[in-house]
Amino acid sequence: MSDSFILCSGKTATGTKKVFRRLASMTKCKLEYIWLDGYQPTQSMRSKTKIVEDFSGKVEDAEMWSFDGSSTEQAPGGASDCLLKPVFCLPDPDRLGTGFLVMCEVMNADGTPHRSNGRATIKDDDNDFWFGFEQEYTIFDPETKKPIGFPAEGFPGPQGPYYCSVGAGKAVGREIVEEHLELCLQAGLNVEGINAEVMMGQWEFQIFAKGAAQAGDEIWLARYLLDRTGEKYGMEINYHCKPVKGDWNGSGMHANFSNTTLRTCGSKEVYEAICQAFEPRITEHIDVYGADNDQRLTGLHETQSIDKFSYGISDRGASIRIPIATVEKGWKGWLEDRRPASNADPYMVASAIIATVKTANVPAGV
């Protein structure tokens, strides 16, 4: 409880007098409800603030809410109500003490998952699957419409000096990246690292979670905080998978994944069986791995061609890389699908990977 005041009117001999009356009141909390809209081929984030009293910080105590789906490509104007179902909640680092970030699923008015709800497609009820996403992005200057650090005319020097770089003229935009990292840590997101990427103005953060749905929740909330940080600096965060055409690296969202089998099997044959399960399902994966991915998956710039499938130990030109750490630990670890684009929905990526791994013809006895 905290003391607050309300403005009241009281009658006196000379007329009406305005007075303040002290009340014991609940703490007002600001809940930022965040969801994905229905735009295609790439969904955007939307959010709005709900003021509630003495919120516990627990997602189960966040109420269902609604919004106008006709304004987000999710409902017709004549029946526009869509529901927001809170699924994940963390403190809002920009509103510390009274603010919370509430990730939501979009539901139809009858309570069923909306067609745009990728999270609802994940079949991982026991959280057996663990995911680590490597989210690449590019900081764009809205005035030049180029990555930050690019000259207004022409291009900077060729790629080479920018990856994991330090120093003026090589690492550009660090103040935005560092502020975003700090906000993520204050919120409680499980960020495992950041680094400058291969193209100037391109950066990456990594997030890990035990459970596919939570991994998606955390990526989306980290993206939200990144967009809001860019907004503060007047910079656009560009998630397009090929933000600059030509001899420049694209942006991906590499998906590192494991389940109990991959973490414990100790078998090269099991790993190969799981990798091979991906080959006949190229189309199913590419369909949800992000728009315009054909511009990025060309066989160049550390990618495999979009219409081909390959896997290999420590091979960054393969569709799926088997990390050297997995091999050194006796074939106990994880795999990395390098095909998802930076603009992909992590929920849909995780859903597709889980479905494919479950089809693998794992050798008997493992």
TrEMBL record:
<comment type="similarity">
    <text>Belongs to the glutamine synthetase family.</text>
</comment>
<protein>
    <recommendedName>
        <fullName>Glutamine synthetase</fullName>
        <ecNumber>6.3.1.2</ecNumber>
    </recommendedName>
</protein>
<dbReference type="InterPro" id="IPR008147">
    <property type="entry name" value="Gln_synt_N"/>
</dbReference>
<keyword id="KW-0067">ATP-binding</keyword>
<keyword id="KW-0963">Cytoplasm</keyword>
<dbReference type="Pfam" id="PF03951">
    <property type="entry name" value="Gln-synt_N"/>
</dbReference>
<comment type="subunit">
    <text>Homooctamer and homotetramer.</text>
</comment>
<dbReference type="GO" id="GO:0005524">
    <property type="term" value="F:ATP binding"/>
</dbReference>
<dbReference type="InterPro" id="IPR008146">
    <property type="entry name" value="Gln_synth_cat_dom"/>
</dbReference>
<dbReference type="InterPro" id="IPR050292">
    <property type="entry name" value="Glutamine_Synthetase"/>
</dbReference>
<dbReference type="GO" id="GO:0005737">
    <property type="term" value="C:cytoplasm"/>
</dbReference>
<dbReference type="Pfam" id="PF00120">
    <property type="entry name" value="Gln-synt_C"/>
</dbReference>
<dbReference type="InterPro" id="IPR027302">
    <property type="entry name" value="Gln_synth_N_conserv_site"/>
</dbReference>
<feature type="domain" description="GS beta-grasp">
    <location>
        <begin position="29"/>
        <end position="111"/>
    </location>
</feature>
<feature type="domain" description="GS catalytic">
    <location>
        <begin position="113"/>
        <end position="366"/>
    </location>
</feature>
<keyword id="KW-0436">Ligase</keyword>
<dbReference type="InterPro" id="IPR014746">
    <property type="entry name" value="Gln_synth/guanido_kin_cat_dom"/>
</dbReference>
<keyword id="KW-0547">Nucleotide-binding</keyword>
<dbReference type="GO" id="GO:0006542">
    <property type="term" value="P:glutamine biosynthetic process"/>
</dbReference>
<comment type="function">
    <text>Catalyzes the ATP-dependent biosynthesis of glutamine from glutamate and ammonia.</text>
</comment>
<dbReference type="InterPro" id="IPR036651">
    <property type="entry name" value="Gln_synt_N_sf"/>
</dbReference>
<dbReference type="InterPro" id="IPR027303">
    <property type="entry name" value="Gln_synth_gly_rich_site"/>
</dbReference>
<dbReference type="GO" id="GO:0004356">
    <property type="term" value="F:glutamine synthetase activity"/>
</dbReference>
